[in-house]
Design brief:
- The chain starts with a helix and ends with a strand.
- α3 packs across α4, α12 packs across α14 and α15 crosses α16.
- It folds into 4 domains: about 90 residues, no CATH class; about 240 residues, Phosphoenolpyruvate-binding domains (TIM Barrel), CATH 3.20.20.60; about 90 residues, M1 Pyruvate Kinase, Domain 3, CATH 2.40.33; about 130 residues, Pyruvate kinase, C-terminal domain (Pyruvate Kinase, Chain: A, domain 1, 3-Layer(aba) Sandwich), CATH 3.40.1380.20.
- By secondary structure, the chain is α/β, with parallel strands linked by helices.
- The longest helix is centred in the N-terminal third of the chain and has 18 residues.
- Strands 6-7-8-18-19-20-21-22 form an 8-stranded parallel beta barrel, surrounded by 5 helices.
């Protein structure tokens, strides 16, 4: 049997013909035993395939050894037919905006390279500068033609040194003084450093470790007198103003959302950010102030819980349930807990988010060497790939794009790693437990299963705030998800979801009419094709959020309209 005939016959059985522009075909059958396919296509097992194991979903790569299904593939024809997107599950890419890239030309280049979400670190800079940055981000978004999510990262109860001029060198064995309650020092040649947090002296004890500059400098408390802490330098280094302070054995009494955080949050909401990250979350209760402020603003901005404190690991279940997105903030987490425990903590956090259907971000030092070099190290590439193979939703760049010399190259490198690592994923994560969630999760889960059973080309979901798309994406279906919405904010939230692309339309009287209008527009634009079989998920009534209730299996006719299948 020839290759074309085999592909035609297997596609009739429910497979999808995928083309990697190599002239070969990849046939994917969702939930179809490979042995049964071969038995129905061949009277014997072909030598070219050899001893092919069973996969879920089953995969045949013609003229090459069989491989597990990739999560990024462009399909369509054998060679000359129009290509169409079939499966896209690349982890999303987040980049921190800073002096190196905060201009429209560079931002447009980063978007074209594959940037999905821009992070603004509210620990640095003033509010007017953040307003200007957001305006440049929106201008770059319009110029590139790609939706861009904006993540506002709040300072949180992060301890930092105060202001002082120049840089101080701390040598091992010397003593330094921490002057608690002081905002600024004019001279630190005597190694006396300001610490704005006045209560630190009361919360520390003799013998406690104090870590500075992300743990690069290590101190041990020798004595405490009033608001002055004297400590010995165990590991020295160079120290500049506003560097972070970590006290692993001490639970500081700073609130999760202080006055500065509240001002930053209100500024971010007023400027239309799509995600808000709450720093140093220690319990689910730490997310409540941010939720309250967002609710008072009348918005549905997603809350990101940053896991960077040991206490968060003990209350992880409740934190994941209370958040919309979770971030594995490995920088401070790796200072607060032993470094060798960070990989296990990362895997545990990702696994818990998958089980609950929540997007998860892995951050910090992913391509750190690209701050100064155009290429990452092999170890960094492996680190990113490992996070993606653990099914993280997004990977984040920090200093690589904020202050690095190669921000565009860092984004394009991260995208390439994400695409290749996604293709190498063997198997799929277990679907989230439907019984733990509301009816919308069950509806979207049933739609995913239906699409797999009938071999639908894609899933289409109507969403007002992005929640239905997030719930559907939690199942990681092996077909693309198209989120139809009439709100730009909801469209931008889909940038955090692997496998989801958004389409902005004018709202129709009924949800199914809105979906139909979007499909016809995409067919006219060549982004969908007549003959496709799709599963749609809509709500009723159309104007009320949270009423997702209807699943339809439909086909696209020659005019681009949706028709019930016979």
């Amino acid at each position: 049997m020839g290759q074309r005939k085999f592909v035609r016959r297997s596609v009739r059985l429910g497979g999808h013909d995928l083309d990697f522009s190599t002239g070969r075909s990849l046939v994917v059958l969702q939930g179809f035993p490979l042995e049964a396919l071969l038995a129905r296509c061949f009277c014997h097992l072909p030598r070219a395939l050899g001893d092919t194991p069973r996969f879920e979903p089953s995969v045949v790569w013609l003229r090459t050894p069989p491989i597990p299904v990739g999560t990024l593939a462009y399909g369509g024809p054998l060679k000359n037919r129009r290509r169409r997107l079939l499966i896209v599950h690349r982890s999303r890419v987040i980049a921190t905006i800073g002096p190196s890239c905060d201009n429209e030309e560079t931002l447009v280049a980063m978007l074209k390279a594959g940037l999905d979400v821009a992070r603004l670190n509210y620990s640095h800079g003033d509010l007017p500068s953040k307003t200007a940055t957001i305006e440049r981000l929106r201008a770059a978004e319009e110029a590139s033609g790609r939706p861009l999510g904006v993540l506002a990262d709040l300072p949180g109860p992060k301890l930092r040194l105060g202001r002082f001029p120049g840089t101080a060198h701390l040598e091992r064995g010397t003593s330094v003084t921490l002057c608690c309650g002081e905002e600024r020092a004019e001279d630190v040649s005597n190694l006396a450093f300001p610490v704005p947090y006045a209560s630190l002296a009361q919360e520390l004890q003799v013998g406690d470790p104090v870590l500075l500059a992300d743990g690069l400098i290590r101190l041990e408390v020798e004595s405490i007198m009033g608001e002055t802490v004297t400590a010995q330098v165990l590991d020295g280094g160079y120290l500049s103003e506003r560097k972070g302070i970590n006290v692993p054995r001490t639970m500081v009494s700073l609130p999760a959302i202080g006055e500065k955080d509240e001002a930053c949050l209100k500024h971010a909401l007023a400027n239309g950010v799509d995600f808000v990250a709450v720093s140093y979350v220690r319990s689910a209760a730490d997310l409540e102030p941010a939720r309250r402020i967002i609710a008072e603003s009348g918005l549905h901005t997603w809350v990101v819980a940053k896991i960077e404190h040991p206490a968060a690991l003990t209350d992880l279940d409740a934190i994941v349930d209370a958040s919309d997105v979770v971030m594995v903030a490995r920088g401070d987490l790796g200072v607060e807990i032993p470094l060798e425990e960070v990989p296990a903590a990362q895997e545990r956090i990702i696994g818990m988010c998958l089980a609950r259907g929540k997007p998860v971000i892995v951050a910090t030092q992913m391509l750190e060497s690209m701050v100064d070099h155009p290429r990452p190290t092999r170890a960094e590439v492996s680190d990113v790939a490992t996070a993606i193979r653990q099914f993280t939703s997004a990977v984040m760049l920090s200093g690589e794009t904020a202050t690095g010399a190669y921000p565009v190259e860092a984004v394009s490198t991260m995208v390439r790693i994400a695409e290749r690592a996604s293709m190498a994923i063997d198997g799929l994560p277990s679907p989230p437990a439907l019984a733990m969630f509301r009816s919308t999760r069950a509806i979207t889960g049933a739609a995913v299963k239906l699409a797999a059973d009938v071999g639908a080309a894609r899933l289409i979901v109507a969403t007002r705030h992005g929640s239905a798309a997030r719930l559907m994406a939690a199942h990681r279906p092996q077909r693309p998800i198209l989120a139809i919405t009439n709100r730009m904010r909801a469209l931008r939230r889909t940038t955090m979801l692997p496998g989801v692309s958004g389409h902005l339309v004018e709202e129709q009287p009924r949800s199914r009419d809105t979906v139909g209008a979007a499909v016809k527009a995409m067919v006219d634009a060549g982004q969908m094709h007549p003959g496709e079989k799709v599963v749609t998920v809509t709500g009723s009534p159309n104007a009320i959020s949270g009423r997702t209730s209807t699943i339809r299996l439909v086909g696209v006719d020659e005019n681009g309209n949706l028709r019930m299948l016979e």
